[in-house]
Structure formats: C-alpha cells, structure tokens
Specification:
The complex is a heterodimer of chains A (196) and B (359). With 196 residues, chain A is α/β, with parallel strands linked by helices. Chain A contains seven helices and seven strands, in the order βαβααββαβαββαα. Chain A has one domain: 3-Layer(aba) Sandwich (Rossmann fold). In chain A, helix 1 packs across helix 6 and helix 2 packs across helix 4. Chain B has a single domain, classed as Luciferase-like domain (TIM Barrel). Chain B contains twelve helices and 13 strands. In chain B, helix 7 links the parallel strand 9 and strand 10. The chains are: A alpha/beta (196), B alpha/beta (359). At the A-B interface, helix 2 and helix 7 of A face helix 5, helix 6, helix 7 and helix 9 of B.
C-alpha cells in the first residue's frame, strides 16, 4: 500500500494534483493491485496541533498516522512557503515517532508559484527524511505554476521517472519489520549488565 | 484496593482570577490536602519530586515526615522519587529514616524524571536515564537488604564496608513501585524484583498502557513472583466532580483549557473521550474508574490527581470530601466483589511484609 500525504491548503490544490499524479505513476509501475491511501493534512490540522501538545494522535488522525507508518511506501508532497516546507507538513512529521519511517521508501514532491524554490526539496525536505532514516528515491518532483501549462513533457516525464523509482525501491528493498519492545523486552540480566 | 491521591506540587496561576499562590502557601496546601486525605478515609498520599520552578517539592521525605507526625493511618509515598539523579545511598537513608518516624507507613515510587537540565544539575546525563535507573536501584535494593555493602558501579563512587543507617524498620525495606509511562525496560525491572508497577495513564489513550502493564504482568510471572494476575499494579486517575455533571464541566473548563500539560490543545470533551479524565458527577467517576479494571485487570492501588492546573485549595478539599464520601466507598465495595481470591487486595504494606518475613 502506498500512503500519500498532501499538505496543500487550497481547493483545488496543485499540491494534491501533483500528489495524485505521483501516486498514479508509482501505482502504474507497481501493478494494477496497488492500493493508494491519500491523506489531506488540512483535514487533520487541529488534531495535529493537539497531538504536539498532548503527545498522542487522537481520533481519525490516529488512523492517518497508522496509514503512513504501516504503508509499504510513502509519497509526501508539500507546498513551498517562505522558502521551505509548510508548517502543516512539518507538524505531521513532528508527531511521528522518530523511528517510524526507518527504511521506508519515500518519494518527495513540492509545489510553488515560481521555479526559483525548486531546491527547497534538496535543502529542506531531504535532510528531514535523512534524519528519520527513510529511504528517499533519487528523483524528487518540484512543480511550479508554469509547469502545469507547459507544452513540454518535462513534468510528466519527471513524474513517471519518480514513480518508477519509488516502485522499484518498494519492490527491491521494502521497509524492515518493526521490532516490538513490548512483545520482546530486553531481559533484565542484560539491562543490569549494561548491555543496553 | 488502596485509594489515594498524588500531587505534582506545581505552583500554577488560577486561570479564573490570575491568583498565584506563594511557595509557602502551596507547600502548606499540599500538607492540608494530605491531612484531608486521611480525614476522608483515603489510604495513600504521594508527592512528586522536582528541582525546578514552578514546582515546590524538592525534599519529599521532609514533607512526608511532617505529614507522618500529623496522621495515623495514611500511607506516605512518592510519585515519583528520582532514581536517576538522587544518590541511591541518600534515598536508602532518607526513606529508612522516614519508615521509623512513620511506624512503617511508607512506600515509594521510582521514576526517572524527563526534564533534561535537571540531570546535569546533579552531575548526570538524561541519555543515561535507563542505565542510571537500573544501576542505582540495584544498589538501593542491596543497601536495604545487606547490612554491609561493598559495591562498585558505573555512576557512583565505590563503597567499601558501607552500612546504610538507620537499617529499615524491623529489617523490612519499604515496598517499591516503579513508575513509567513509556519504557518497557522499567516494566521489566519492576517484574524482575517482584516490585509494583505504576502506570500513570492519565494523559494518553489506554491502549498504550495496556501493553506496558501487560508486559509487566507477563514478566512478573516469568521471574517467578506469582501469576500474571497477581502482579502489583497501580494506576492514575484524574477527576473533577460536582453533584450535577454540567456544573462540574462548567467549573472545570477554564482550568482544563489553561492547564500546563494539555491546555490550549484538545477540547475538554475530546480529551475526556481519549483519556481517563472524568469531569462530571460522582457516579460518573465511579463508572469510569470501574472500567480501569476491565482494561488492566484487578489492580491494587488507585491514585487520583486532584490538585493541579491552579485549582484553589478550597475546591480541592471539597473534591476530596466527595471522593472520600461518595466515590471511594462504592469503588472499594465494587472492586472487592469482583476480585478473585488469589489476587492480592492491596499493595504490600509494612505489616503484611513483616508477617511474610516472620513466616
């Protein structure tokens, strides 16, 4: 299953548009049975702030978090605001457990009004996902306003390539299963011996 | 089942009038609350330990010793005693002394503390939190059980021919709880020693704590202290009551909305649905508290947080009257009727542990 996060705010949203196209490209490369679950962060805006204050995700937002952490691959798309990812986008990743995306294949996307911010993916998004130890595919897609009206095939080509890279990584190197510390505690003798 | 209250000891402005109690007022209020707990028939008073404003209780055994002198039945405890930043030798001495003064009405709960700067203030590092809790408690456990201790570890100067004085009252160390809201290592530690495990589950959904308590119970059995359902479990609780539930909600809402822990976040209604917080009539509190047993099994100690978020002392004392008169007697009867005979009714006390020793 591919989880898709869109941090777009508008309706309709170019961020959602890009997220859908990236998801379609990855799903096509993976095959017809691929499930896609899309999460609009705007729907969870209040719950996300609550979670930063209380330390736990509540209600339908908890389901959204589980969708992302349980997914085989993640597509994360944000608008660029003031030269970086949006606050809403960052808030979502702030409330995740630090190891919850470890080894998970991730495809990044961003949208903006001008192509001048295209490097935001590389200086802002990639370090965030590197810290979370996610496996980010080489191609990320930035779509400026003008890309949507361009007759050239640059944007569709990039989308297809990025989707194929995510599909390949999901097939070749799926995220490792999580160790459950509540099911398999470190025996006390080991703790006492200072092994951990 | 033992019922009681635990206090953080925060100095928080009353959001309804902006009034901030002085440290002296807050400290005396904590004492008044403890005395009230005994007066209304509760079993336990537990104080927090903190070393930074806006909290006042930096010296728990000083406070508990004073309360011991003014009470007769109340069990004096902590929630929690910092096993990471305190010297385990001093914990051994302080609580043995308290045991003698209080004629054995003492137990204590180990906790790590989650405030980063407190660790370096005491020469420690928060990243060593778990190893400190493991090593320090291991030493504490020996100091109370061996008259002369030779010891060497990673975190403290070695000891040669050291005797912690006074020795525990009647040679019986205080019963120990280990409190944790997150760490499987601490559940494992509590299980290893056959100590109690306290889950202060008041701020998060129950599913998380069910796993933690479940792990403790399973490992308690693994280490041969009894069956999983005989493990000694304590739980938190957080309530605000008035005769009519609408009055309780109306009065508590400004305190909830501005509370240091969850204020300005979820609504009172959302938080009540997701966590054990109960704001309503005494009957609602009874019904909600009984569900804890459904979620965690028969347990031995229930502690409520009553004095927080800037609630005035007068209000807290009224709450304790209701808790002692209308809620706890019903809960005692209901829990007792449901408890299987082989499951301990309460956490071990000095008297019960002494009887065990003699046998």
């Amino acid at each position: 299953m591919i989880a898709v996060i869109s941090a777009g705010l508008g309706q309709p949203s170019s961020t959602r548009l890009l997220a859908d196209r990236l998801a379609a490209a990855a799903a096509e490369a993976l095959g017809p049975d691929t499930a896609v679950e899309t999460i609009e962060l705007r729907d969870h805006a209040h719950a996300m702030v609550d979670a930063t204050l209380t330390g736990f995700p509540s209600g339908t937002f908890r389901t959204a978090v589980e969708t992302v952490t349980d997914a085989d691959g993640l597509i994360a798309v944000t608008p660029v605001f003031n030269a970086s990812y949006s606050g809403l986008f960052k808030t979502f990743f702030d409330v995740l457990d630090r190891d919850s995306l470890e080894g998970k294949p991730v495809l990044l996307g961003a949208t903006g009004g001008t192509p001048r911010h295209s490097l935001a993916i590389d200086y802002a998004l990639r370090p965030l996902f590197a810290y979370l130890r996610a496996a980010v595919v080489p191609t990320a897609v930035y779509a400026a306003s003008e890309d949507w009206g361009s007759g050239e095939t640059a944007l569709p080509d990039r989308i297809t390539r990025a989707g194929a890279e995510l599909a390949a990584l999901m097939s070749a190197r799926p995220a490792p299963p999580k160790d459950d510390p509540y099911a398999h505690p470190v025996p006390f003798e080991e703790l006492l011996a200072g092994g951990h | 089942m033992q019922f009681g209250i635990f206090t953080v000891g925060d100095v928080t402005p009353d959001p309804t009038d902006g009034r901030v109690p002085s440290e002296a007022e807050r400290i005396k209020a904590m004492v008044a609350i403890a005395l009230k707990a005994e007066e209304v028939g509760l079993d336990v008073f537990a104080t927090g330990e903190h070393h930074n404003p806006p909290f006042v209780p930096s010296s728990p055994t000083t406070m508990l010793g004073y309360i011991a002198a003014r009470t007769e039945r109340l069990i004096l405890s902590t929630a929690t005693t910092l096993i990471t930043t305190n010297d385990p030798v001093k914990i051994a001495e302080d609580f043995a002394m308290l045991q003698h003064l209080a004629d054995g009405r003492v137990d204590l709960m180990m906790g790590r503390g989650n405030t980063g700067p407190v660790y370096p203030w005491f020469g420690k590092d928060i990243r060593d939190g778990i190893p400190l809790a493991i090593e320090n408690y291991h030493l504490l456990h020996r100091l109370w059980r061996e008259d002369v201790v030779d010891w060497e570890g990673r975190f403290r100067t070695p000891l040669q021919s050291f005797t912690s004085t006074p020795r525990p009252l009647d040679g019986v160390p205080p019963f120990v709880w280990h409190g944790s809201i997150r760490s499987p290592e601490i559940a494992e530690q509590a299980a290893y020693y056959g100590d109690g495990f306290f889950a202060n589950h008041i701020f998060w959904p129950k599913e998380h704590f069910q796993r933690l308590v479940g792990l403790y119970r399973q490992r308690f059995e693994h280490y041969g202290h009894g069956s999983a359902d005989q493990a000694i479990v304590g739980l938190g609780g957080q309530v605000f009551m008035r005769k009519n539930s609408q009055d309780a909600v109306r009065e508590f809402r400004p305190y909830f909305d501005n509370a240091p822990v969850y204020g300005h976040g979820p609504s009172l209604e959302e938080f009540t649905a997701e966590t054990p917080l109960t704001v309503g009539s005494p009957q609602q509190v009874i019904d909600r508290t009984l569900t804890f047993r459904d979620h965690f099994g028969d347990y031995q100690r229930q502690l409520f947080l009553m004095d927080h978020a800037g609630l005035p002392l007068k209000t807290v004392l009224e709450q304790l009257d209701m808790l002692g008169e209308e809620v706890v007697p019903v809960l005692r009867k209901e829990f007792e009727a449901l408890r299987p005979a082989h499951v301990p009714a309460t956490a071990p006390t000095h008297t019960s542990r002494l009887a065990e020793e003699v046998r």
